[in-house]
Write a structure and sequence with these properties.
Number of domains of chain A: 2
CATH architecture of the largest domain in chain B: Alpha-Beta Complex
Number of strands of chain B: 5
Oligomer: heterodimer
Number of strands of chain A: 13
Largest interface: A-B, 28 and 38 residues
CATH class of the largest domain in chain A: Alpha Beta
Shape of chain A: globular
Largest sheet of chain A: 7 strands, mixed
Number of domains of chain B: 2
Order of helices and strands of chain A: EHHEHEHEHEHEHEEHHEEHEEHHEHH
Number of helices of chain A: 14
CATH topology of the largest domain in chain A: Aspartate Aminotransferase, domain 2
Order of helices and strands of chain B: HEEEHHHHHEE
Number of helices of chain B: 6
Strand content of chain B: 15-25%
CATH architecture of the largest domain in chain A: 3-Layer(aba) Sandwich
CATH topology of the largest domain in chain B: Sufe protein. Chain: A
Largest sheet of chain B: 3 strands, antiparallel
Radius of gyration of chain B: 16 Å
CATH superfamily of the largest domain in chain A: Type I PLP-dependent aspartate aminotransferase-like (Major domain)
């Protein structure tokens, strides 16, 4: 059976671009050395590492490449930022301000700190998923050492007013971290314009390899390392570098920088088409997130009276990959905290799908997806007692 | 993730629907938990002549409902009462651990429906709340942490193994 798989789940699984693959395969074949070695092989490795760092620095407009620290992914970057600041500032204060819709890497890092005595204030979001910067200002006390608010949300795509929050943190002299994993490489990110002190990102979100990420640390920001050991990454992150992955990341960053505009235009066209056509195929749904301050490659839709995992399985039979943040599929018993925070009820939160588009999608994919979706929704509503009650 | 039998029942669910003049009806679960199930019974001579279901839930929940209806259709009330959630999971060739708690509600819904039938027969007035009964745990049913898969003690809000907070609806 030769069926073209339509990937509408790029956030979970971005393909490696051919140029990235080539660079990584070449690096494997050439037997790159260890950037810390003092011999010739080490020197060449160090050069590759520096080049990749420059590429990534350019992508986020970091003024000096040394402000970029390579990590083993977005999760490590976030843990590093949150715990690293909290630990280094524990004598100054033990209060952290965050938002209700952060990624679990932020939430659970903060929760862990909470277990050892740190206090947390989590500010709510409006129904579009946006934080009001005023709420951040009000939450900051003399004890506050860190504000962590994500750049864009990984479930609903809402982009936060980061610049405004940064103005507040700067004025109040509090360190500001932003989890930009869903944004870097997808939309233009300029750490200088944003005014953040720390910014987390991941390579696999811009067609680089999984297992590589980065943390922008503004010069002079006090952050303790998460991993202690050698003196790699300017003493900020110990452990022999994942050079092959980092080389791939550098190439992916170059391509993301070069193709940013055309990629945005491409996924926006697909997103617009989907939103325009959706009402012709199904009814009783909500589009989650903000209409303007939103990622161009993401649509979150809550379909009423049915559960998301069932839709995922049915679409999978049709060769279409989508994702759900519903409790069951995420392996958790809970409905998504993000969807509950923007006002969805439990049942609607369970019926939510997250679609993320990429360079390999075509506009026609939208139509094939929608007609399969319509069939799945019709079948599942026939089975659903909730729909039965509505019909009555 | 799912066995062949689960996928078969999910793709082609048996006995979907509503019986308008059902002698017994049982509804368990709630959207909070992620799964809801309603069972309708048509009873003749103390035998389940017909059974239909409706389910809001994941693939496992739909498969559980479907295979349950096959297991008890034509059986006597007394036989049907003996069917447990464990029997249903075994008939499906197993379910993922994290689905055993919330999604495996079939036997519970069936038992509520049978009690509904028996109450009606005995002339008991059915309080509206009764059919909304929560998922009952058979003794020895185990819950598992959604994060680390370790067993969680009933009523615990914290996983002892990985220290995650767990919200389990009991």
């Amino acid at each position: 059976m030769d069926m073209k798989i339509i990937n509408l789940d790029h956030l979970s699984a971005n393909p490696l671009l051919p140029e990235v693959q080539d660079a990584m395969i070449e690096a494997i074949r050439e037997n790159h050395g260890n950037p810390s070695s003092q011999h010739r092989m080490g020197e060449r490795a160090f050069e590759s590492l520096s080049n990749a760092r420059k590429s990534v620095a350019k992508l986020v407009n970091s003024p000096t490449p040394e402000e970029i620290v390579f990590t083993a992914g977005g999760t490590e970057s976030i843990n590093h930022a949150v715990k690293g600041v909290a630990l280094s500032q524990s004598k100054k204060g033990k209060h952290i301000v965050t938002s209700n819709i952060e990624h679990s890497a932020v939430l659970r890092s903060i929760k862990r700190l909470n277990m050892v005595g740190y206090k947390v204030t989590s500010v709510p979001v409006d129904e579009s998923g946006r934080v009001n910067p005023e709420d951040i200002a009000k939450a900051i006390t003399d004890e506050t050492i860190l504000v962590s608010v994500m750049h864009s949300n990984n479930e609903i795509g809402t982009i936060q007013p980061i610049e405004e929050i940064a103005r507040i943190t700067k004025e109040k002299k509090v360190i500001f971290h932003s989890d930009a994993v869903a944004s870097v490489g997808v939309v233009p990110i300029d750490v200088q314009k944003l005014g953040v002190d720390l910014l987390s990102f991941a390579s696999n979100n811009f067609y680089g390899p999984a297992g590589v990420g980065g943390l922008y640390i503004r010069k002079g920001t006090p952050v303790w390392p998460l991993l202690e050991g050698g003196v790699q990454e300017s003493n900020k992150r110990a452990g022999t570098e994942n050079l092959i992955g980092i080389i791939g990341t550098g190439v992916a960053a170059d391509l993301a920088y070069r193709d940013m505009e055309s990629r945005i235009a491409h996924v926006s066209k697909i997103k617009d088409r989907l939103l325009r056509e959706l009402p012709n195929y199904i009814d009783d749904y909500f589009i989650n997130g903000h209409p303007e301050h939103t990622l161009p490659n993401m649509v979150s839709v809550s379909i009423q009276y049915i559960e998301g995992e069932s839709v995922v399985l049915m679409l999978d039979d049709e060769g279409i990959a989508v994702s759900t943040r519903s409790a069951c599929a995420a392996g958790s018993l809970r409905a998504s905290h993000v969807l509950l925070s923007v006002g969805r009820d439990y049942a609607d939160a369970q019926g939510t799908m997250v679609l993320t588009f990429g360079t390999d999608n075509e506009e026609e994919d939208v139509i094939r997806f929608l007609s399969s979706l319509k069939d799945a929704v019709t079948t599942l509503r026939k089975i659903s007692p909730l729909y039965n009650e509505v019909e009555k | 993730m799912y066995s062949k039998t689960v996928m078969d029942h999910f793709r082609n669910p048996r006995n979907v629907g509503v019986i308008d003049d059902a002698e017994g009806m049982g509804e368990v679960g709630n959207p909070l938990c992620g799964d809801m199930m309603t069972i309708y019974l048509k009873i003749r001579d103390e035998k389940i002549e017909d059974i239909k279901f409706q389910t809001f839930g994941c693939g496992a929940a739909i498969a559980v409902s479907s295979i349950l209806t096959e297991m008890v259709k034509g059986k006597s009330i007394e036989e049907a009462k003996k069917v447990t959630n464990k029997d249903v999971a075994e008939a499906l060739e197993g379910l993922p651990k994290n689905k055993l708690h919330c999604s495996n509600l079939g036997a519970d819904a069936l038992h509520v429906a049978i009690r509904d039938y028996e109450d009606k027969k005995a002339g008991k007035k059915k309080p509206e709340l009764k059919r909304k009964e929560q998922h009952e745990h058979a003794h020895g049913d185990k819950c598992h942490c959604p994060y680390c898969d370790s067993e969680i003690v009933e009523g615990a809000t914290f996983c002892k193994s990985c220290q995650s907070e767990v919200e389990v609806q009991h």
